[in-house]
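Sample 3 of the quickstart, ligand adenosine-5'-triphosphate:
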Amino acid sequence: MIEARDLRKYYGSYEALKKISFRVEKGKVYSLLGSNGAGKTTIIKIITGLLKADSGTVFIDGKRSDSDKSIKSRFGYMPEHPDLYDRLTGREFLCMNGRLHKVKEKRLDKKINRLAGELNISEALDSEMGSYSKGMKQKILFINSVLHDPPNLILDEPTGGLDPRYTAYLKNQIIDMADQGKTVLLSTHITSVASAVSDEVAVINGGSIIAKGTPQQLMDEKNVHSLEEVFIEVVKDG
Ligand code: ATP
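Result:
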């Protein structure tokens, strides 16, 4: 379970988040859908502890993120921008993080090989990551986020550098993980991704949630047939 309660964030005098609240229940996929600069990454960075909110509280599985450090092992995180260590190989990076999360060696090896195979990057695993394309880096970051089998997953623009085939793979993975009881929070500006995977969607604009509900509820409210049309309508109204 992931909960954000009244999150506020200023960058200087600019109010980037204006009292954002939402709750993602166990086994559900929740999408933050917003245009560039809406505040999605700021929300995600606060939830993962990379940024400090000016006020408000984050709970992961009922535990306050600012007072309980044990929550760090309770989520996996895939950042939007793949800033990786150029001189490490993909395998070295994944093994290092898997060990930090105390994943057993045999299991770690098996999981890295299986996921790298599914994502078609097995042959690159032993090359330095400085030579990887953006999509390859995204794939490494996805594998990294699930290595320790966390109960919560936080994915910031996960399909950013991926071609349609691996976008489809990732959408299926997200749905499967929710079916296994994991809680998934993702940010995207791609309405087709949000539409395919989400139990609930929050449309973010200018640091506020301007609409939320299931994709069907949002479409019914606006009397339209796609999340893309919902997005255009609510951003126009909002
Ligand atoms: P994108 O889809 O483009 O990644 P986003 O919805 O993730 O956008 P954020 O990155 O959270 O948006 O940014 C929200 C707002 O805060 C934007 O107007 C952005 O310019 C501003 N902002 C973000 N980081 C900083 C910073 N470090 N200093 C000043 N302003 C910032």
